[in-house]
Batch of 3 targets.
Target 1
Amino acid sequence: MEDKIFNECLLHYKNNFTDGNTWESLASKMNFQSGEVLRCSFKRERQKRNIPTKGETRRENINLDIKTNNNCKILLFDLEISPMLAMVFNRFDQNIPYDHIVQDWHLICWSAKWLFDSEVMSDVLTPSEARNHDDKRIVKSMWNLIDGADVILAHNGKKFDAKKLNARFIKHGLNPPSPYQIIDTLLIARSGFGFTSNKLDDLCEYFGLPQKTDTNFDLWKRAFYGDKQALEDMSKYCNNDSLILEELYLKLRPWIKSGVNLNLWNEDNVSICPNCAGNIQFRGNYYTSSGRYDSWKCLDCGAVGRSKYNNLSKEKNKTIVR
């Protein structure tokens, strides 16, 4: 990061480190993809220059200035599959028997990116592969990528993307990839909020984020039959979905209450934010019906939470009744 950009970010950090909206305006001024990308780039540069974090911990035995070494590899991805081709007798209320399916679905293309990495990786069928409905090559390339990830992130990833991939992996004789955890932005949106719609494009519109590329069913139809331009357009459509997925995830991330805990990949003996691996500040208490815990706030993404250990004394614990 250039000194001029870093110094302006540092000044902003010292004055407004809890105000995420101003990172967005700063990112726009500096031509960064988003406020979150700028914030994370600044954080890495700040740690390289050994500049300590803001804020002081309530507990003296916690050192927030220790740099964390987080090795979690988070892969964002999106899939596009083909429609099925079936023989039917009418248009309405169809329950199509399996033997009426002339051509089952297959993978058309995929796109993926590592969190905060600028490169979008992708693979798409060739016209010949599409006409032969042969997705073995791109299924293998997707398997190789998934096999190297600690966490995969997709919208509706648990119910759709992961299961669809597994169906094609086993179809082509591939063994299960290395174990991974799943972050599903659809489940996060459904569980913690009351949005009118939880679709990826609708959520992006709600937050004023970039949206999906406009398309229609004709694109899937032409790609199914191996139209070269349609396959190229499908790949671009898929690539954009991975980019806007990252934007949505970063918007939702401070609100995630369970799932992947980045402390588990942290090699230093210091507590970090389980959501973003950022620095945390302990502040006040968190109460349950039978315990009291140290509460914390992330100084980077704004997430909040509590310690897993009850901070009541043994004597006080014995007096608690329910």
Note: Residues 55-68 have pLDDT under 50 and may be disordered.
Target 2
Amino acid sequence: MIVKSGAPSNTEVISSFVATVTERDLPPEVVDTARLCLADWAAVCVGAHKEPAARTVHAVSRTWSASGSSTMMLGGRSNASVAALCNGTLAHCLDFDDTYVSANTHASAPLWAAALALGEEINATRMALLMAFIAGFEVTARVGYGLGEAVTGRGWHATGAFGRIGSAAACASLLQLNETRVAHSLGAAATQVSGLVGSFGTMSKPFHAGKAAMDGVISAQLAAADFEASTHLLEPGQSLDGALIQDRAATIRPADFSTWELLNNSFKPYAACHLGHAAIDAARELGRTMTNEDRKALHRIDIYVGELAHQVIGGKNGVPTTPLEAKFDLKYCVALAMHGSRLSADDFHDTPDPAGSTVSLARSVHIHPSKECGYTSARIEAEFIDGSVRTGYVSVAKGHPGNPMSWNDMWQKFQALVEPVASARTEEIFEVIRQFGSRGETASPLVGLLSRAMQKQAGRP
């Protein structure tokens, strides 16, 4: 139980928000943004249907013979926790999903996977699912706000940490847990945080998102069955943050739900690590001013990015040997951008060619950390053989608040990822998502639409 004395604890504030979110009047723009997150989630799931990481997790999960009513999007049904694992992994395979920058967390991948899987199991309405997702996102934001760079810089994957807690909050909302039970759900999730930055560029990174979704479902279900966990792990400077950031350079902030952090979410126009998007924007803009002859005359490209971007994706040496590695090699991504690539999922299907023009150009790219640049900004300097220099600067990369993606932008991304699979049904699926929650339907029709499209494309009945 929660022992109350004096002012409410951080856990009490968070738990109260989750337990009462269904009683709130949600601003229309918040609900609309939740739908935008769902559209993005669905698109990257469908686009990843051939990814080996997702297929391996799905194949192994089928051997467990776990029964249930929740759809695994690559085929079959299972219980909610297994479906959440499979679909959460699928959602992060392309590394094309959204990012809450203030926590450096891919929130939608685990949150929607967990909410939709559990929602199918309990036959939740779509509006209940939207509220649950919003609750989970706001909790993710409150626990992770300001910690993302510090956590990532110390080797932890923020999605594996904060996405797990947010998923538990979303599922606790769906199960209509009271404040005390929510607190135990959050505690059960917090004690399972995991995921290492050292796994970036391998199948383990998307697995982190899937496991976060799975553990969120399990944590809420355990709490609903009177499981007792620690209820002090989310207090500032006391446990979770102290374990992840042992030098106490940053701590969890006291929770305040007076604003909607979902409105500060960011979406990806490129299928590569979000830390590199500002540099990609800068390279694409500069590349548009160049002819093929100009590119042949390039001598050196200097990219200035934030310190975290340099640490995680900027210091790669050699040639990426897999498509996954290529997504986390900023030099390679900049070279793609200079050649005019859209950096879509298709650009990361094949292993980079060591003798190709992109790798050749990447060898002339040099990445520098700059205190003048943050998560959303980057500067580029291109020097030519004749000594001339062209420069460019991006203050806010496309997809971030201040330079957001609209529904029209999302349709372009959605269409590119979904149409090769769903064909003529693509627009229908998109409209289902745009209207999600406006009527009383349950989750099943949407998840079923997506799954059937993948099965048909794969030649399965």
Note: The beta strands are 70-71, 77-78, 298-305, 365-369, 378-384, 389-394.
Target 3
Amino acid sequence: MRTATARMLPMLATVLALAAARPASADEFPLKDGDVWVMAGDSITAQHLHTNYMEAFCYARYPKLTFRIRNSGVGGNKIPDLINRFDYDVAAWKPTIVSVELGMNDKGQFTTDQYIENMGKLTQKIQAVKARPVFFTASPMNDGSTMDKLGGNARLNEYAIALKKFAAEQKAPFADQFHALIDVWGKNKARETTANEIAAVKALAQDDKLPGVEHLKAFLAEQTKDPNPPVSMKGDAVHPGEPGQLMMAAALLSDLGADGFVSSACVECNQGAKPVCDARGCTLDGVRVEGGGVAFDRLDDSIPFPIPDEARSVLPLAPTVLQLSDCSLAVGGLKGDRFTVSIDGKVVAMLAAGELKKGVNLTAYGTGPYADQGKEVLAAVKAKEDLVGQWRNLSKAASAENAPAKAKEGLENQTKKVEEADAKIREAAKPRKHHFEIAPAK
């Protein structure tokens, strides 16, 4: 008869194999303790979507680091425009990291050689303030183009290839979202119309008084059976909405070498005996087998990737997102077919015993305390960035020649408000102890 530990080994092997399969990067993630990271770019950066998601990820994954992230995006900007506003809109933050995400507007005016020449001038500005440059390619235009048929993305493709070489010469971190996304977006483009139509039907189906609404609901019920539902990036060809920008954030984070491991918890239930547990990146307390299920308290060292509700539709199309947030739970030895997984008294999922034994990623579920905390972090990041926007206006005024003392005083006061908002993000991202109950479904 095998021991409980021996019975648990296959389940642990599965979890470890999944962890080993996570994409590795030769580059170390650039964020360090004490860093001030200014994300400079154009209107895509100024949307405060993928940059906010990246910031939320950093707070979630690295809660022991103290850092600050600032958005410095301006619509229509090209590299020379950023150089012109650099002193009051980037250097004024006293950054230690400046990431550059430009090219969408440059492509209509500059050859690839000119683009790299301009990037060299900007790099000198960054290094002059003793900051470390980080280079991002522009995102692709979501117009149905692929690598086989680049169309309007041809110049951006050239920029991306040249920028990779330039970053290597500078020995600087580089992330290529362009090549990570162009084929995925291009092949999905034809299905976006269907996704948008389904979204329109969902909106209409909210009105129970609408004649024929039952037919709309029946149509939507059929759509839920599709294992590969159509996904819309939302927004427009240049400015994706939340789903597209979550993919952008994941592509950039992954290429920068961000750590995708959150935690893993494995519990082997031995009916009538002490359960066997293995916890990594978290602690389990009060584990008890009862009523055909198991209950315990779990405290993670960090929290999952915060994902906005508006972007969750893209998860089937974007495996990188969940690879960046491996927060696993595996439970073996259960007697029964289906089980509810409740966290802090809220049902998060209903799963088959085989699914639980294999292990699930808790980040995948859009309800429950983990998802709720992620939304808190995202809201705190947004609130801080609203204050950053006000700071940037004050900084421009305070940097003007013969600026009044009142302008500089206002900037100092606004700086304090922004730093107080940083503290609120850190507080929102602190790991919390949660009570888990896995019970037979009734």
Note: The two ends are 32 Å apart (CA to CA).
